């Protein structure tokens, strides 16, 4: 919570933590740590914390009786979406679509491709490319 110094109005700060509930913490840690290559910061009782730049990702194991629901997609920014996708596919990550141009913005084009973690949480790679330059 902060007051904007320009106008003194309350505003939230940047997102700092995303929490995913998982059925099997060991399986989720293999996916996020080994397949995606995220750096683990902490391993605690029923949870693991990963570094995603300015945001942290917390995996929290849920009881077997709990029902998991997919969250909104978390998008990982990459500089080369084609190479990043090939690397992840080589590590066993299955994508659910092709790389697609999703927006043509005034300064650049935005490309995305989606995949899911073992618990069904939607994830994506996103890359900004020069206007009109075909990445694929």
What attributes does this structure have?
136 residues, alpha+beta, four-stranded mixed beta sheet, 10 strands, 2,3-Dihydroxybiphenyl 1,2-Dioxygenase, domain 1
Poorly predicted parts: none
**Rg, nearest Å:** 17 Å
Helix and strand pattern:
EEEHEEEEHEEE
**What is the number of independent domains?**
1
Q: What is the CATH topology classification name? A: 2,3-Dihydroxybiphenyl 1,2-Dioxygenase, domain 1
End-to-end Cα distance, whole Å, is 42 Å
Q: Write down the overall geometry.
A: globular
What structural class results from the helix and strand content? Answer: alpha+beta
CATH hierarchy, class: Alpha Beta
Number of strands: 10
By CATH, the superfamily comes out as 2,3-Dihydroxybiphenyl 1,2-Dioxygenase, domain 1
What percent strand? 35-45%
- Main β-sheet description: 4 strands, mixed
Our count of helices gives 2
* CATH 2nd-level architecture: Roll
Mean pLDDT: 89
Helix content: 10-25%
Strand order of the largest sheet: 3-6-5-4
Briefly say what this structure is.
This protein is an alpha+beta fold and 136 residues long.
If you had to describe this structure to a student in words, what would you say it looks like?
- This protein is of the alpha+beta class and 136 residues long.
- It has a single domain, classed as Roll (2,3-Dihydroxybiphenyl 1,2-Dioxygenase, domain 1).
- It is 15% helix and 40% strand.
- It is built from 2 helices and 10 strands, in the order βββαββββαβββ.
- It has helices at residues 25-35, 81-90, and strands spanning 2-3, 10-11, 17-22, 39-44, 47-52, 55-61, 74-77, 100-104, 109-116, 122-129.
- The chain has a 4-stranded mixed beta sheet with strand order 3-6-5-4, covered by helices on one side.
- A hairpin with a 5-residue loop joins strand 9 and strand 10.
- The longest helix is centred in the first third of the chain and has 11 residues, at 25-35.
- The termini are far apart.
């Amino acid at each position: 919570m902060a007051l904007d110094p320009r106008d003194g109005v309350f505003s939230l700060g940047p997102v700092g933590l995303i929490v995913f509930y998982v059925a099997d913490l060991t399986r989720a840690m293999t996916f996020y740590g080994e397949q995606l290559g995220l750096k683990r910061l902490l391993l605690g009782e029923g949870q693991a914390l990963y570094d995603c730049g300015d945001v942290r990702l917390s995996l929290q194991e849920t009881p077997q009786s709990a029902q998991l629901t997919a969250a909104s997609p978390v998008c990982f920014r990459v500089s080369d979406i084609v190479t990043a996708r090939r690397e992840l596919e080589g590590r066993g990550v299955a994508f659910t679509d092709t790389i697609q141009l999703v927006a043509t913005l005034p300064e650049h084009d935005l490309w995305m491709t989606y995949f899911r973690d073992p618990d069904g949480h939607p994830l994506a790679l996103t890359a900004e490319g020069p206007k009109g330059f075909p990445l694929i």
